[in-house]
Amino acid sequence: MNFRYYIAFLVFVFSACDKEKQNQKKSSNLQVDHFNIWTESPKLAKEKLINLGFIALPDSLSKVHHGQGTTGRYFYFLNNYLELIYVNDQKEFEENNAKNKNLDFSERANFKNNGASPFGIALKVKDYNTNKIPFKKIAYHQDWMTKNANIYAAKSSKNNLKEPSVFVVYPEIESDQFESLADLQKIPEEYSFYRTLFKHPNGAKKVSQITITSPQLDTSTPTIKALNGIENVLIKKGSEHVMELYFDKNFQKKIFDLRPELPLIIYL
């Protein structure tokens, strides 16, 4: 074969492979609904984000996970939201863990002592066909959930603590998504207050990339492979637990490192 044509052939092959990988990545039946960070200091963590120009949901409106012993502090974006999750009722928390021994709440809340990843990713599945969930799962139900509806937690999250905690939500509790700030007008007038929660003074609109790093991580497990098959999500092995959030493709070229108080790096 002529050398010049051989080179051209190799370029074509590698290009085709790259396109195939991209298509595989974009063909995932999963999508990020929201993501969380376990914290022992929710007030401090919330203040650090507010000081960067993010707007938080008022504490009085923040969800309490009744029956679970946890609650959160929330920051909404056009395509998903961040939850700072923590234990607010120790007795209820312990009772729930005793009932749901196959779930990882107690291990994640104890991340500082056991080295577990403090991060979680909530997913939604296309057409809500739970058969499309590509990892072993455990059904979880609380009284506040819709009757006969379950959250499905990745079975591996209990034992593979270096992985982020992973679970799939059902349609009634999926987060709303908006293409632009103008689309916030779709929020009913009676809830118009919520439109203000997306208009962050620092200009952040959409999360364009979520990267989670974890030490001693096995990236070959079905759960991690599933996460890495989602567009704009990367789970990788590194020297420490850290989440990197890119907003609007780092349009402003600004970087804020919130460690050590919060294992989070923000790219605006």
What does this structure look like?
The chain is built from six helices and 13 strands. It is an alpha/beta fold and 268 residues long. The strands form two sheets. It has an eight-stranded mixed beta sheet with strand order 2-3-4-1-5-8-7-6.
**End-to-end Cα distance:** 50 Å
By helix and strand content, what is the structural category? alpha/beta
Low-pLDDT parts are 5-25
The number of helices is 6
- Mean pLDDT over the residues: 92
| Secondary-structure element order, N to C | HEHEEEHHHEEEEEHEEEE
Give the overall form.
globular
Radius of gyration: 20 Å
**Oligomeric state of the chains in view:** single chain
Largest sheet: 8 strands, mixed
**What is the beta-strand fraction?**
25-35%
Helix content: 10-25%
Find the count of extended strands (DSSP E, 2+ residues).
Answer: 13
Give the spatial strand order of the biggest sheet: 2-3-4-1-5-8-7-6
